[in-house]
Inverse folding.
């Protein structure tokens, strides 16, 4: 071997040397196939888990919105943080005022997202997720239709029967027929002319929306403080920052609060506007989850990098004699470093291939379980940015993981290595121990976080929603007003459906409510009580008498709703026990009167008599309990939307077909959708928590595996270095048990040191988690004990094989070899 010529290191000669180094490295990897497999699997595990989470985070948080200059798009809403509402929808009167007075926005558009449609007349009846939008939504988003045109302002003001289709719906229902423009479709029993088809990327306000119609706002709805049910999107003028727009809208809200104090409050109770990036506004509920998962990804990659470094140090030590020969023949230390790094680089290819395959499998399993409110789910996948991320991560981990071992190996004294060919490269023991301790420290942090999430999830499962979900089947209905034009006809239609469903053998109760718990659909407002000051925020529900028996809400006082509570009888209602205690204390609420609180309106609802008090239920999810409930008879406050609730003896899912058949016998054009058991609705609200707990636990398990591999490698290698010492000890009378204790003590000390450091690092980090924990705090004693105990126990198990090898040391054979 010739001494290295320093010229041409970065030219063609340098390229040839690097190529030769890589070829030599491939030969070495084939020779040490077991070591190669371990490193490749380690890389694939880390890259696969990391790439899958990055794919989700990129699609949801990082990928630009598919609109022109998306950085200028903002969502504008209301906030009442003092009352626990971080953000909520606005009313139409606010939109008109803001649009007229803003100086910093080019335009402001409005959308009513709850505007679903029954599609009939062409094939099976279908319920479509739709929205009513102001005419200027496409212009604010800078989006042109793929076919046809969008609404005009005149069509909005006249409530024109025209519709725009989404690309996915046009393709699914109409086979991407370009002749759809100008044709009429039956929506809610009325003909709507299709005037346009939007491009594939247009999904405002969400992926699930399939069509849009003009937003007609009745004049009596243009009242400040009434019907906060609209989304608002705007476009900043060039050069305007979000902070400037926030200040402008806050100023407008101060003015409006002075003019309409009843609608917008005053003093500390005043409502304020909130202006935020459109890209961030729809990720609020999943943002914290993704940040936590990205943090777990970073920890796992750090552990993988340190694990690889430890394996490479051990491999470099086994090649000490070879490296010493190369140095003796003239190779420079820089040349050795480059050679050792180049040799290991082929492993990044194996890590990329295996990691991408693992990431694809993880995404296939993961995406169906993402929370239902996760935006831009359709764009999650192994696209180019994710592949680039995997490539960069693989190369970076291999590069940084090999730099330290290459440096340590290249600086060793060749004379000492040649004299002690059977020994390791000296001076690397502390480095290996440090890497193992660091891996264990980071692993303890992940285990602690995982334990807290598991404990939190367990506490959540103990929460009782206030109703009995077992044995309950639900399905959603929406009445077509073109067919049932009056409230009496709608109420009669509901009653006939209930009678048909009750005739099915095995059905014990059936009822209808306008908003089912745990579906994410809310109808809220305030109620006031006769002779009592103030008003009380509550869930408003219209229900038939059979609903309470069907879902299992108990009666506490008085009576439930009855068939005799019809439109012509005196108005009655129910309140739940929480609202009764809040207003009347321990007194009897039955016989008192209440009504909806409608501030700013000249015409108020009549007072209605409280005929009963029912049990309080959770409506949004198991984690939050913000509001009590107030109920009206469906016959006295009729709603077009209804959820059919059926209590069944046996498995409720097998009855779905029979229930739908009875509904179709009553009305063949009635779409039935969201057919689920009540237990499935409850589980659906746990999806975010379930997913986060599962993934964090998976990352903690993967990090524990990597840390134990690193600990095993260090203990095993150290034990091999001390075989002569062990032989002498055995010759002097040491027992196999003492050898076990000696080797296990090394593993115990490394694990214990790592746990202490990890717990110290975890304390400040866990403060970030308190906002996403439920039922436990950052100082949860069980988690702080379980995490290090589990790691130490598994670490000791991983050291059993090296300890057994040391205990079987043949003293005579070892001393003879020396």
């Amino acid at each position: 071997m010739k001494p290295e010529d320093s010229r041409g290191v970065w030219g063609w000669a340098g390229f040839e040397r690097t190529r030769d180094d890589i070829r030599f490295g491939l030969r070495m990897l084939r020779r040490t196939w077991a070591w190669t497999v371990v490193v490749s699997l380690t890389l694939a595990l880390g890259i696969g888990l990391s790439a899958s989470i990055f794919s989700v985070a990129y699609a949801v948080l990082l990928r630009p919105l598919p609109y022109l200059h998306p950085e200028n798009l903002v969502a504008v809403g209301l906030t009442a943080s003092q009352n626990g509402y971080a953000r909520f929808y606005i009313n139409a009167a606010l939109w008109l005022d803001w649009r007229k007075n803003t100086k910093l926005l080019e335009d402001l558009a409005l959308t009513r997202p709850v505007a679903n449609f029954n599609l009939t007349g062409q094939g099976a009846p279908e319920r479509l997720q739709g929205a009513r939008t102001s005419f200027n939504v496409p212009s604010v988003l800078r989006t042109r239709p793929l076919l046809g045109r969008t609404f005009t302002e005149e069509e909005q003001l006249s409530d024109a029967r025209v519709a725009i289709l989404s690309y996915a719906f046009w393709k699914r229902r109409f086979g991407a027929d370009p002749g759809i423009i100008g044709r009429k479709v039956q929506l809610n029993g009325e003909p709507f002319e299709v005037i346009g088809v939007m491009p594939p990327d247009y999904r405002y306000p969400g992926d699930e929306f399939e069509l849009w119609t003009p937003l007609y706002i009745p004049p009596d709805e243009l009242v400040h403080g009434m019907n906060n049910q609209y989304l608002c999107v705007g476009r900043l003028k060039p050069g305007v920052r979000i902070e400037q727009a926030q200040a402008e809208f806050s100023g407008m809200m101060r003015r409006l609060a002075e003019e309409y104090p009843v609608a917008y409050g005053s003093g500390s109770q005043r409502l304020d506007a909130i202006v935020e990036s459109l890209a961030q506004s729809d990720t609020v509920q999943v943002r914290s989850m993704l940040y936590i998962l990205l943090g777990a990804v970073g920890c796992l990659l750090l552990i993988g990098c340190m694990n690889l470094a430890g394996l490479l140090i051990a491999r470099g030590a086994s090649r000490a004699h070879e490296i010493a020969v190369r140095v003796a023949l003239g190779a420079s230390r820089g040349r050795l470093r480059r050679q050792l790094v180049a040799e290991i680089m082929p492993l990044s290819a194996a890590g990329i291939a295996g990691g991408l395959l693992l990431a694809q499998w993880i995404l296939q399993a993961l995406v169906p379980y993402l929370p239902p409110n996760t935006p831009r789910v359709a764009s999650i996948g192994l696209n180019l940015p994710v592949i680039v991320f995997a490539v960069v991560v693989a190369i970076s981990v291999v590069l940084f993981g090999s730099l330290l071992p290459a440096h340590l190996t290249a600086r060793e004294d060749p004379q000492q290595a040649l004299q002690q060919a059977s020994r390791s490269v000296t001076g690397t023991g502390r480095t290996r121990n440090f890497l193992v301790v660091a891996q264990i420290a980071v692993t303890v942090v992940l285990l602690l976080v995982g334990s807290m999430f598991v404990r939190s999830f367990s506490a959540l499962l103990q929460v009782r929603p206030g109703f009995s979900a077992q044995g309950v089947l639900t399905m959603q209905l929406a009445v077509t007003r073109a067919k049932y034009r009056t409230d009496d006809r709608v109420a009669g239609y509901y009653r006939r459906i209930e009678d048909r469903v009750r005739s099915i053998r095995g059905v014990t109760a059936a009822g209808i409510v306008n908003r089912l718990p745990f579906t994410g659909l809310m109808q809220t407002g305030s109620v006031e009580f006769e002779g009592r000051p103030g008003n009380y925020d509550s869930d408003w529900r219209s229900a038939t008498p059979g609903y309470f028996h069907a879902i299992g809400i108990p009666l506490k006082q008085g009576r439930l709703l009855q068939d005799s509570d019809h439109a012509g009888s005196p108005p009655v209602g129910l309140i739940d026990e929480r609202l009764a205690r809040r207003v009347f204390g321990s007194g009897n609420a039955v016989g008192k009167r209440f009504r909806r609180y409608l501030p700013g309106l000249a015409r108020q609802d009549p007072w209605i008599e409280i005929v009963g008090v029912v049990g309080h239920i959770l409506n949004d999810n198991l984690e939050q309990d913000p509001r009590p409930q107030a109920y009206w008879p469906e016959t006295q406050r009729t709603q077009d939307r209804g959820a059919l609730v059926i209590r069944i003896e046996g498995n409720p899912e097998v009855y779905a077909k029979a229930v739908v058949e009875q509904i179709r016998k009553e009305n063949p054009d009635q779409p039935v959708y969201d057919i689920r058991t009540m237990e499935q609705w409850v589980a659906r609200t746990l999806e975010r928590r379930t997913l986060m707990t599962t993934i964090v636990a998976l990352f903690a398990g993967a990090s524990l595996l990597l840390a134990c591999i690193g600990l095993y490698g260090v203990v095993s290698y150290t034990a091999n270095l001390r075989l002569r010492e062990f032989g002498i000890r055995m010759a002097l009378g040491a027992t196999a048990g003492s050898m076990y204790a000696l080797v296990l003590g090394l593993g115990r000390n490394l694990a214990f040191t790592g746990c202490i450091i990890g717990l110290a690092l975890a304390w400040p980090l866990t403060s970030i988690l308190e906002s996403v924990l439920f039922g436990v705090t950052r100082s949860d004693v069980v988690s702080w004990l379980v995490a290090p105990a589990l790691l130490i126990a598994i670490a000791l198990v991983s050291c059993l094989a090296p300890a057994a090898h040391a205990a079987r040391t043949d003293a005579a054979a070892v001393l003879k070899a020396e």
